[in-house]
Amino acid sequence: MCTAHSIEARDLFNAVLADINRFADMAVNDEKAVRAIERRLTETDQSRAKSLEKEKKKLNKRLAELDRLFSSLYEDKVMERITERNFEMMSGKYQKEQLEIEARLKEVTETLNDSYEKSQGVRDFLSLIRNYQGLKELDATIINALIDKILVSEREKLADGTVRQEIKIYYKFIGFVGELHITPTKRWTALKPKNCTVCGVEYVPSSGISKYCPACAKRIQREKSNESKRRSRERNRRACIELSAKNDRLTLSSEMDD
To answer: Which pTM does this prediction carry?
Structure first.
């Protein structure tokens, strides 16, 4: 994790724990708030679902009409009321429309199923999280049961000098509900901005002994790594030269003895 997005473990722990307890208390004690969350998370889907249900009904009605048209068209052909050419032309037209409607019906049905699953997901989430009311500790099992992922923003310095970070928790079944804003603990707020000793840019240090801004620190670390590799290659080269010289001396000594 880069320095700008770093966060104290205790800050993240406390924020996540508080949010879980907030939802758990709501699920147990506040039916009105529960309904508000359900509306907030599914309102758009419900509105769209109504529109899609109407479209689905119209598509199915048109498919039934096409079936009747096919039947009538075939009867006209058998009774020789239309030519073979006209039969082929009309049946091709109906078949093309039928395939297009079936493809659209599949899309509409899948979208509606997703919408219904999301509505059910809200209920499943609230049913699950009510079991964690009064939670005092977090562990991997609880986090994996309730949360898909957590995103942490860069630290933001406010006008009053305090530092704030945003946390987004993506819960199982419902995804992202709302961001949390926290004020990092003293480790961050006690450190005043300083200027990088290399480029002069002002930055918020991650520790009291920090000398470089994140960009320069990364570059310096890379340069140190490259220098270390260069020295290693030089040592290996010298070792090879010394070994070769030693072998040459041994060969010369052997020839002189002969």
So the answer is: 0.45
